[in-house]
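Ticket #4471: structure export looks truncated?
Reporter: QA, pipeline team
Priority: medium

Steps to reproduce: submit the single chain below to the structure queue and open the exported record.
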Amino acid sequence: MRTDRLHKVGGCESIKTAILDDVVMARTFKAAGFRIGLRSAPDLMRIRFFKSNRHAFFGFTKHLIGSVQGSLWLAPLLALLPLLMYGTLVFAATYGILHQQFLLTGVSVLTLAVHYVALLYSRPGNKFNSLVALAIPLMCVPFAASCLRAAYLLGAKGRFEWRGRDTDMRGGRVVAGD
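Actual output as written to the record:
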């Protein structure tokens, strides 16, 4: 984004209370009459999304809260889908091996392999460790926990803290820690 346009829409101050700040910034630019678009430029900057696994867990929760805010019922559904998808495949492969049902094992392993290859080749500009990508089926467990935590925070508490800001989700505003 251009600096002069960022200043015209109120700078980063205008989005400091937003959970999905990038989405809100795009909407703010659009509302101000500026054109928006996405460009892939992986060599222009390097960022570290999360400092640790703990930050990643809370980061997923933040993104899920922003995504399901108007439809709380989606959070448990989102928690279940990857567990069912990967869990069924891993269970079927393991069951097939243990009970010598090689067709079941083969179909399950082939399905996981196709998903893995598609993941690697569908993201040409991104650089990530292909061995780490093998652990993606295991990541559905913390992802599901993040979904359920998002549902709890939205439904029961109506609040979420992210990087020192306590956000009142019912009112959509920051209430403390500015």
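Status: closed, not a bug. The export was complete when the record was re-opened. Leaving a note from the reviewer for reference: The helical segments are 3-8, 21-31, 53-68, 74-98, 102-121, 130-133, 140-157.
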